[in-house]
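thought: fold this chain, then report.
action: predict
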Amino acid sequence: MSTTRQHPPGGLGREPDGTGPAPAAPADAQWRTLSLREATGIVPMARDFARQALHDWGWLPASGADRRAAAEDVLLVVSELVTNACLHADGPEELRIAFSAKALRVEVVDGGAGQPAPRTPHRAGRPGGHGMFIVQRLCLDWGVSRTPDQPGKTVWAELPVPS
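observation:
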């Protein structure tokens, strides 16, 4: 799992060697975008937005336990990424979710300069600091994209499409 791969926003897919540009978004990718600037109740709003997208894309209502778990994983990753932006980056600016035949991608744009990373070593018994560890465990891949000479970043995560 990567913590710093430089996927451009909107590039679905993983880089096998961790270098070079990410593949372009598939033509069939469906995108949803939510502005979070100056919003209140950001985390529940982001979860509701993601839940509605999952419903529109047929992930919900789930037809079985595996599909239900996949949808819950997406909602948890959305919560963790948005919460991290709230706690460590002066709040998120935008949430983007894309769905294609290969993966579901979550992107959170913020103005922060920090670099998210799972706490090492991970200490399961201690409160706090589990967000990026959870993202790392649930996702196919995740990373951070930055635009040179511009503040902020996009933290992205990709989850598998349930079968």
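thought: worth noting. Confidence is low (pLDDT under 50) at residues 1-24.
final: tokens above.
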